[in-house]
Amino acid sequence: MKSTLNYLTWSFALLLVAACGQKKPAVPVSASVEQTDTLPADTTKLVADEALTDAARFVAGLPVRNETGRLYELSQSDTWKAHARNMEQIWNAFQQTAPRLIAFTEKELSDINENCRTVFYPFGGPDYLFPNTFFPEMNTYFLIGLEKTGSQVKIEKPSKETYKLYQNAVSDILNLSFFRTDDMKQELFNDTIDGVTPIISVLMVRSGREIVSIRNVRLTEQGAIADTKEDGQPIEQGDMVEFKYFRHGTNKLQTLYYLKADLSNGGFPRNKALTAYVNQFDASTTVTFIKSASYLMHMTYFSGIREGILNHTSAVLQDDSGIPLPFYDTEKWDVTLYGTFEKPISMFGKYVQPELREAYEQADPKPLNFRIGYARQSNLQIARKK
Predict the structure, then answer these.
(1) Tens-place pLDDT, residues 335-363
(2) DSSP assignment letter at 312
(3) Quick count: other Cβ atoms within 10 Å of Cβ 336?
(4) What is the average per-residue pLDDT within 239-260?
(5) Residue 267, number of CB atoms within 10 A of its CB
(6) Could you tell me where the beta strands, DSSP code E, fall in 81-194?
(7) Closest CA to 184 of 192, 175, 195
(8) CA 357 – CA 365 distance, rounded (Å)
(9) Could you read off the pLDDT of 256-293 as tens digits, one per residue?
């Protein structure tokens, strides 16, 4: 059991390549979403960016590596030490569940992890933790939410209030498995945490990952990723951020993208860049993850992103807030049920889903021994394309 805990602990990190300050043509960084970031065996070992990683470790309540810098001095204060104890207590709530998540991953997702290289996580927001738990060795993770990208971790004059913001920002995902939207609005938009980037950074280092870089990028209308504006100028602030990272002790570079975007039919189909990016997914090597998605794809005005997922992915791991069961054509998809489903929580009571409830009543769902999503009696479905 200890080895599986260690495996998860080292199972997350992000890196972003620094944008060049000189003016240059807007050359796409990647024209393919299936790029492989694994370095040759004889390549120099990956090196973390010490400043980025230490800043994230500091607000995550972990010891900083540079013992001669300002952050180390600040970490000797009683206030920071109290913060570190609080963050450890919050993190331990997830560690209690971690072995069960890992067991599920090893038993139920092994084929997907073997065959896929990209995780698409619409409606994911800053939830870096769960896609990297279920799919720990992917080349690329692509998260979408409505929250701003924000800036790298800022540490000016940390106080009890600063530390409390970080504690609150990560406690929901660790205790409930999702972020509460109203809380996010308060916790992400202030002078200390101005978007999802600091939160992703905290979850990353808490999961044992080493951050190589964080930078702002953008999607071109052709669906490529570029590191400059169209005029060649650096992207100082935008709607998309890239993390590059590696798991300690390995030489595999992984990439996570977060994009602020509207996925309704008023946004997604009109977003030529994002549409082009999704259309370029290699369906045979892309898995989609959907959790705590407010049942948005049950609505007609989210049909575009729903169809995009069904057309450009080989597997979907979701809870009942994802794509309604009738959209999985039985001639094209095999669906495996886990856990319990009777009805949604009262907040989403109108999404009764009689087809899903009947499927749970008639089938023999596999047990689910951890909480995920909105309901305490949790459920998951894995849809695999035939």
Answers:
(1) 999 999 999 999 999 999 999 999 999 99
(2) S
(3) 13
(4) 94
(5) 16
(6) 118-121, 140-145
(7) 195
(8) 11
(9) 999 999 999 999 999 999 999 999 999 999 999 999 99
DSSP one-letter code for 61: T
Q: What's the CA gap between 125 and 26, in Å, rounded? A: 27
Nearest to 230 by CA among 279, 238, 17, 259: 238
| Contact in structure between 257 and 240 (CB atoms under 8 Å) | yes
Cα–Cα nearest to 321, from 347, 298, 289, 354: 298
Cβ neighbors of 108 (< 8 A, separation 6 or more) are 336, 338, 366, 382
First to last CA, the chain: 34
Please identify which residue in the block is written with the tokens 């409930």: 176
CA 59, CA 52: separation in Å to the nearest integer?
Answer: 11
Residue tagged 């595999």 (tokens): 252
Complete edge-to-edge strand list for the sheet that includes strand 286-290:
209-216, 240-247, 254-260, 140-145, 118-121, 286-290, 315-318, 379-385, 333-339
How many C-beta neighbours within 10 Å does residue 312 have?
18
What pTM was computed for the model? 0.86
Nearby residues of 279 by Cβ (< 8 Å), 6 or more positions away = 223, 308, 312
E strands, 324-368, where? 333-339
According to DSSP, residue 23 is labeled -
Give the distance, in angstroms, between the CA of residue 222 and the centroid of all CA atoms in the same chain. 24
